[in-house]
Each structure stands twice: as structure tokens, then as C-alpha cells.
Design goal:
The protein is α+β, with helices and mostly antiparallel strands and about 100 residues long. It has a single domain, classed as Nuclear Transport Factor 2, Chain: A (Roll), CATH 3.10.450. Helices cover about 15% and strands about 50% of the residues. α1 crosses α2. The longest helix is centred in the middle third of the chain and has 11 residues. It starts with a helix and ends with a strand.
């Protein structure tokens, strides 16, 4: 795996849930997320810069809902709703618990 895919995979909580139209993927092991990013990293070949637009949609103790739009090549390419959860260790470190595409 690449360092970039490992870094992205480490941002996901275990357990977590990935919800796509007609597909629900319960993530019960960190290796699932690592394997997903390792297998899909090729779709970003040639992308060396990105812009992000992050909006907090809601916040409650221990959880945030984020609207995240990722742009590269001058166009918005991906938009997701992320539910982030605080880690049990009490730090301000949040992990993605639910991922849902938006548009």
C-alpha cells in the first residue's frame, strides 16, 4: 500500500459504515478500509493538487456531520457527507464513522 492510501484509511473509525446507492458496506476491520484505498488509489493517478470545501452541517457532543466537496482539474469531483465521531481516548481526534455520497 502507498503511504497516502494508508493515511486516508487511518481516518476511518472501526466499526464504520459506507453507504452508497444500493450498497451498504459495514466496516468491521481496519484492513477493509486499507484494502479499499489500496485498490482504488489508481483513479487519482495524475492528480497532484486538490481544493476542498468543508462545511460543518451539525455538531453534538462527540459527533460532527461534515459536507465535504473535493475539486481537482478545475471541477468539483466528489462530494460526501461524513459523520465523524470522537475517539474514546478523549483527544480531539475524530474519525469517519459514516460516509455517504452527496450528488
Amino acid at each position: 500500500m502507498s503511504p497516502a492510501s494508508d493515511r486516508h484509511a487511518s481516518r476511518y473509525a472501526v466499526p464504520s459504515l459506507i453507504l452508497f446507492p444500493d450498497t451498504s458496506i459495514p466496516v468491521t476491520d481496519a484492513r477493509q478500509t486499507e484494502q479499499f484505498f489500496a485498490s482504488s488509489w489508481g483513479q487519482y493517478e495524475g492528480v497532484d493538487a486538490q481544493d476542498k470545501d468543508i462545511v460543518v452541517m451539525a455538531e453534538v457532543p462527540g459527533s460532527l456531520w461534515i459536507d465535504g466537496t473535493w475539486s481537482f482539474g478545475g471541477k468539483a469531483r466528489e462530494r460526501f457527507c461524513y459523520q465523524l465521531v470522537a475517539q474514546a481516548d478523549g483527544t480531539d481526534d475524530y474519525r469517519i464513522a459514516v460516509l455517504t455520497p452527496m450528488g
